[in-house]
């Protein structure tokens, strides 16, 4: 008996996004859930820099379509025999695992331990903008930097968020502000500065200029935390100069060259990486923490203390619209998130 087919968007060659073959409309086998997996009917997806990095031109081809997409909102269609957190009909959202096929397909398999209940107050499109950036921001702030979620512990403390108007920056700014930190965001254009301010940033500085004079103009000699969401290499000297003694720096952006960690030694500064795929990639014992934090983000959204970061919605979900979304991301001027909704 032949397997049921489903629509998906995938690639066979790694090509520039302006070439029609860079992302293709394809038909692939509809999967079936086993173990702790859920089969999700995909309603909306969001595009992230990781999609662009994976798709970027390289001398490699695939024998079967490679499916991207690590931001999904949808409905549980079927639960695997070991799944216990969700049931068919539940509305969910999640980022998934880089080690498995992505969610740019009509149906998608995901481990229930990295899935959260969709915010009840959001449509699928607005929920799809959240998971990857929310997990990254949450883990970066609370797990890696060790920021306390309790406002009384953060009185007088400051955080510099480099790239505050992007997808992760938009959520990190809100979470940091909610935790009671004074937030200094970086932005280089009036529209990105306005966006970051609307997300809760107390001050804005320009990341194309030296940080220290701009911070000093705000009455700050140093900052307690730095969350780097853009070009770690470019900002390394500025970060080393402005981080407080015994402060902490977290980055999500890999480097093109080795970093001079000695610059942090005299201040006893902590430097830590954040990759939201680490838990699912290595199946860490605390994998279920992503389920918990996504549920907490849902509660914050429904309470009104956190808001989604959609900047643009495209429809339907097809190769043409995903190529358009990738192209917009590659321009490097994105504010907020791009979402694509509805298979047709």
Give the N-terminus to C-terminus distance in angstroms: 26 Å
- Assembly annotation: single chain
Radius of gyration: 20 Å
Tell me the series of helices and strands, N- to C-terminal. EEEHEEEEEHHEHEHEHEHEEHHEHE
Q: How can the largest sheet be summarized?
A: 7 strands, mixed
Tally of individual domains? 2
Kindly report the name of the CATH homologous superfamily of the largest domain: Medium-chain alcohol dehydrogenases, catalytic domain
Shape: globular
- Poorly predicted runs are none
Organism: Paenibacillus hunanensis
Subcellular location: Cytoplasm
Pfam families: ADH_N, ADH_zinc_N_2
Domain Enoyl reductase (ER): 10-340
Explain this structure.
The protein has 10 helices and 16 strands. By secondary structure, the protein is of the alpha/beta class. The chain has 2 domains: 5-130 and 278-341, Quinone Oxidoreductase, Chain A, domain 1 (Alpha-Beta Complex); 140-273, Rossmann fold.
Question: Topology, pairings included?
Answer:
Layout: E1 5-13, E2 24-29, E3 37-47, H1 49-55, E4 61-67, E5 72-79, E6 91-94, E7 107-111, E8 115-117, H2 124-128, H3 131-144, E9 158-162, H4 167-178, E10 182-186, H5 190-198, E11 203-205, H6 211-217, E12 223-228, H7 232-242, E13 243-251, E14 270-273, H8 278-282, H9 289-303, E15 310-314, H10 319-330, E16 337-341
Helix pairs in contact: 3-4, 3-9
């Amino acid at each position: 008996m032949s397997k049921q087919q489903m629509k998906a968007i995938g690639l066979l060659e790694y090509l520039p996004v302006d070439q029609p073959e860079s992302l293709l409309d394809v038909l692939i086998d509809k999967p079936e859930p086993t173990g702790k997996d859920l089969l999700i009917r995909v309603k909306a997806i969001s595009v992230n820099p990781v999609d662009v990095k994976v798709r970027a031109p390289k001398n490699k081809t695939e024998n079967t379509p490679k499916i991207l997409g690590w931001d999904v909102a949808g409905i549980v269609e079927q639960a695997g025999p070991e799944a216990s957190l969700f049931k068919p009909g539940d509305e969910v959202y999640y980022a998934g695992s880089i080690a498995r096929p992505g969610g740019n397909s009509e149906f998608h398999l995901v481990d229930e331990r990295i899935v959260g209940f969709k915010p009840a107050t959001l449509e699928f499109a607005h929920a799809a903008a959240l998971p990857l950036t929310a997990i990254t921001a949450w883990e970066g702030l609370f797990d890696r930097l060790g920021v306390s979620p309790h406002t009384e512990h953060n009185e007088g403390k400051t955080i510099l968020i480099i790239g505050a108007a992007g997808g992760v920056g938009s959520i990190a700014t809100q979470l940091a502000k909610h935790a009671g930190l004074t937030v200094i965001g970086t932005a280089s254009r009036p529209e990105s500065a306005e966006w970051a301010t609307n997300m809760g940033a107390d001050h804005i500085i320009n990341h194309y200029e030296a940080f220290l004079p701009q911070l000093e103009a705000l009455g700050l000699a140093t900052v307690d935390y730095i969350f780097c969401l853009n070009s770690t290499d470019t900002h390394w000297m500025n970060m080393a100069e402005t981080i407080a003694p015994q402060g902490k720096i977290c980055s999500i952006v890999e480097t093109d060259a080795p970093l001079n960690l000695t610059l942090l030694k005299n201040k006893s500064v902590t430097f830590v990486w954040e990759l939201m795929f680490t838990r699912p990639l290595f199946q860490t014992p605390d994998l279920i923490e992503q389920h918990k934090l996504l549920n907490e983000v849902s509660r914050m959204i429904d309470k009104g203390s956190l808001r989604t970061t959609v900047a643009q919605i495209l429809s339907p979900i097809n190769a043409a619209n995903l190529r358009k979304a990738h192209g917009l991301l590659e321009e490097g001027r994105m504010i907020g998130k791009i979402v694509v909704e509805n298979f047709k």
